[in-house]
Automatic annotation (TrEMBL):
The keyword Membrane does not apply. Residues 1-247 form the Alanyl-transfer RNA synthetases family profile domain. It comes from the Bacteria. It comes from Phyllobacterium leguminum. GO terms for biological process: alanyl-tRNA aminoacylation. Keywords: Hydrolase, Metal-binding, Zinc. It is found in: Cytoplasm. InterPro entries: Ala-tRNA-synth_IIc_core, Ala-tRNA-synth_IIc_N, Alanyl-tRNA_Editing_Enzymes, Thr/Ala-tRNA-synth_IIc_edit, Transl_B-barrel_sf, tRNA_SAD. This is Alanine--tRNA ligase. Its cofactor is Zn(2+). SUPFAM superfamilies: ThrRS/AlaRS common domain, Translation proteins. GO terms for molecular function: alanine-tRNA ligase activity; aminoacyl-tRNA deacylase activity; ATP binding; metal ion binding; nucleic acid binding. Pfam families: tRNA-synt_2c, tRNA_SAD. GO terms for cellular component: cytoplasm.
């Protein structure tokens, strides 16, 4: 049977700690809670790591967070050799915040890159040090210099980043919201989460279940590390932290 975990990170990406009660331990030792601030791997964003604190102060290190049978069942995978909590036990959940915040900055940067390069996305991955997006983009006029400049303009403008929910029908009526060729938004649940950048989405709106910073300035200094040509019409852009190195 699939359990339902309340995904606290969906409403508040800044919850570095939270409380959860153990609902189940699966056959692989994975811990299922009633609620969690640990993001589960999906949509190109890696799941959280961190630790659970027990009432006696001891720790259970968490090495990965993934979804289970359904997207609403979140499974925390302990590192090897950790103590197993009791069913019903209340735990304090500590996300590895420096790592998560870097992923939030990177993930938000990916949205900004999709604004600078408004082309169909064929693949994407968010990483702690580097992220990448593959675009169907035959036009060679997008360079690391001019794309970096436009990204940093949006970062400095400090546009608000927020979320709102729309219905399947609203999404079907606005097919332009979907930028990814390969990843279909989860139509059929009735509600789709939109990530909105700028007042009323003036900069961008797209379906996304990940975690983002609240204002684009928090992304900080980023640059395009490398643009690789992948086949005739495909280009891979890498986003890195820091300023564009002088070559
Ligand atoms: Zn996103």
């Amino acid at each position: 049977m699939a359990y339902e975990t309340k995904a606290l990170f969906r409403d508040d990406a800044y919850l570095a700690t939270a409380e959860g009660v153990v609902l189940a331990i699966n056959e692989h030792g994975g811990i299922v809670l009633d609620a969690t601030n640990f993001y589960a791997t999906s949509g190109g964003q890696p799941g959280d790591i961190g630790y659970f604190e027990r009432s006696d102060g001891s720790r259970i290190e968490i090495a990965a967070t993934v979804t289970g049978e359904t997207k609403n069942e979140i499974i925390h995978i302990p590192a090897e050799g950790q103590a197993v909590p009791e069913i019903g036990e209340k735990l304090t959940l500590h996300v590895d915040w420096p790592r998560r915040f870097r992923l939030m900055r990177m993930h938000t940067a990916c949205h900004l890159l999709s604004v600078v390069c408004p082309f169909p996305i064929t693949g994407a991955a968010v990483g702690e040090e580097e992220s990448r997006i593959d675009f169907d983009l035959p036009d060679p006029s997008y360079t690391r210099e001019n794309v970096t400049e436009r990204l940093m303009e949006m970062v400095r403008a400090n546009a608000p980043v927020s979320t709102r929910w729309i219905t399947d029908e609203e999404l079907s009526a606005n097919p332009g919201l979907i930028k990814s060729k390969n990843v279909r938004p989860p139509i059929g649940n009735g509600q789709i989460r939109l990530v909105v950048i700028g007042e009323d989405g003036t900069i961008d709106s797209q379906p996304c279940g990940g975690t983002h910073v609240a204002g684009t300035q928090e992304v900080g200094e980023i640059h395009i590390g490398k643009i690789e040509k992948k086949g005739k019409e495909n280009r891979r852009f890498r986003i890195r932290f820091g300023s564009l190195p002088l070559v």
